[in-house]
Amino acid sequence: MSELPIEDRLAPSVLRRALGAGPLAVFACALVLVCQPTRADTAPPAGHGVLARQSSLESVPHVHVGLVPHVHVGLVPHVHVGLVPHVHVELVSPARVALVPHTRGGRVASDSQVQTYLQIAEAGVKRAEHLWGNRHLGWYDSRLDDGERYPLATIWDATPLFEALDAIEIAAPSPAHRAAVEAFAAGAERYWDATLKPDPGFAPYPGDRGNTVAWFDDNGWWGLAFLDAYRATGVSRYLREAERAFAFITRAGWNQNGGGLWWNTAHPYVAGEPLAAGSLLGAQLLKLTGKPYYRTQVLKFLDWAESDFLTERHLYKRTESDPTPTPYIEGTLVETHQVLCEVGISQACERAAQLADASAERFSNRLNMGPQFDTIYLHWMLAYGAKSGETRWRALAEEMAADAQEHARDAQGLYLGTWDGTPITQHQAVPNMLQTDAATLELFAWLAVSRQALAAKVVPTRVASRASAAMKASTTRSSNWVPAQRRSSASAAS
C-alpha cells in the first residue's frame, strides 16, 4: 500500500487538535468564558475544551464550577492581564518582505534576513495582540472575531504565541520585549487549577476549575514555554511554574499498569505527545536544577518508550494502536536526548543523533502536518542543530519559512494558511485561528534566535556531528538505549 501523507494516517483521536473539526456548535461547546467576577452560581461548563480534544465528538454534560476574578495589571493603563503591553513596533508590509528560500544545498541566510525574521515576528505578535486580543475578557480569543460564548484561547491555541514572545526576547533583549513576555506569562498562570483532579495542574482553558479533563501534553508544552520565559527573563517564578507542570505529569499522567503517559486525565490511552513534552520538560529541569528526581522520572519515561513504544526506523509511536511516527513527537525527543547527553548520560548522545538522522529521513520532504505541529518540530531541531553543529536543521527551517511567506500569508499579512498552500481545514484547524498565525510567527522568531546564536559563534555542546557514515546505518539497527536494569548492573560491576 502506498504511504499516505502523515496527517491522513493519524488516528481519528488526534482530531481533538482540530478546534472546530465538527460543526460550529461543537466548537462552541469546546471553549469557555472565564473572566467574570467569581460567583458560586455562574460558571463555565466543566470539561470545556474537551470536545476539541476527544477522539469522538460526543457531547458532554455542562456541569458548573467556579470562576476566577477578572483582574488588571499595571504594565500600561487599561490593559488586562496577559495581553502584550503597547510597544512601538513597525509593522512590516507584506510587499516589503521577501525571504530567499534556503535550499538544502547549503545557502546561508544573510544578516539582513536575520533582521527580517525578527521584524516579521515582532510585527506579527503586535498584530496578533490587536486582532485576537479580547480587551473585555483580558486575554486572546481562539479565532478572529470569535462571537462564541466561550471564545478564549486554550493552552494548545496559545502556546505558539507564548513561545514566539519568548524567542523574540531571547533573540533581541529589550525592555519592551521583556514586558511582553511577562504580561503573557501573567495570563498563562491563569490556566493553573489547584482543584484539578486527581492532582493540581494546568487546565486547558483559563479559569477551568475542578471537574474537567486536562491534557498531559498541554502541561508539557506550557511548562516548556514557561522555561523559555525563564531563559528569556530570568524570572524564577517561571521556573517554578514549569516544575508544577512536570509534577502534574508525573503524579497524574504515568500509567501505573504497564507504563507510558496517558493522553489526558480520562486515561483513554497512552500517547507520544505527553511522552515527548514531558520528557523534554523533565530533562531541561534536570539540567537547570540538578535535582535527581528529574533524572529518575525522565529515564523511567524513556526506558519504557525504548522497550515498548518504538516503530519504524526506531522512531517513536504516536499511540499504542497507531505506530505512525509524528514530527513534533520525534523532534522534541531528539532534543530530550541531547539535553540528557549534556548532563552526562552518555547513551543519550548517540540516541539523539540516531533519532535526528531517522527523523531527517522520515520527515524532511513531507513536513506537512500543519504550522501548529511543524513549528514544534523545527523549534527543537533548531535547538539540537545549534548544539550539534549541524546546519541541515536551520536549512530546513529557512526553507519552511520561505514557503510560509509564499503560501501562508494573506493580503493583510496574517499567516492564516499552510506552508504548502493546502487548505488549513486539511490540517486539523479551522480558518482564522490564533494558533495558525502564531505558529508561523514562532518559526520566524526561533530562526532569529538561531541566526543570532550563529553570529555569536556559540560553541556546540557536542563537538562532533553524528551524521557520519557509521551513524547513517543507525536507522537500520536496533536502538542503542540501555534500560535501567542494565545501567544499574553495569554501574555495580564497575
Give an overview of the whole structure.
- The protein has 494 residues and is mainly alpha-helical.
- The protein has a single domain, classed as Glycosyltransferase.
- Helices cover 48% and strands 2% of the residues.
- It has 16 helices and 4 strands.
- The strands form 2 sheets. Strands 1-2 form a two-stranded antiparallel sheet. Strands 3-4 form a two-stranded antiparallel sheet.
- The longest helix is centred in the first third of the chain and has 22 residues, at 111-132.
- Mean pLDDT is 78; it is low at 1-82, 84-98, 100-108, 459-478 and 489-494.
Which properties best describe this structure?
single chain; 494 residues; mainly alpha; Glycosyltransferase; two-stranded antiparallel sheet; two-stranded antiparallel ribbon; disordered N terminus; disordered C terminus
Topology:
Layout: H1 6-9, H2 24-30, H3 111-132, E1 133-134, E2 139-140, H4 155-171, H5 175-188, E3 192-193, E4 201-202, H6 216-233, H7 236-253, H8 272-289, H9 292-308, H10 327-342, H11 347-363, H12 371-388, H13 392-407, H14 434-455, H15 469-472, H16 484-493
Antiparallel strand pairs: 1-2, 3-4
Brief overview:
48% of the residues lie in helices and 2% in strands.
* Top CATH class: Mainly Alpha
Unreliable runs: 1-82, 84-98, 100-108, 459-478, 489-494
CATH architecture designation: Alpha/alpha barrel
The CATH topology turns out to be: Glycosyltransferase
Shape: globular
Number of strands: 4
How much helix is in the residues?
40-55%
The total domain count is 1
Question: How would you classify the helix and strand content by structural class?
Answer: mainly alpha
In the sheet with the most strands, the strands line up as 1-2
Radius of gyration: 21 Å
What is the straight-line distance between the termini?
Answer: 50 Å
Number of helices: 16
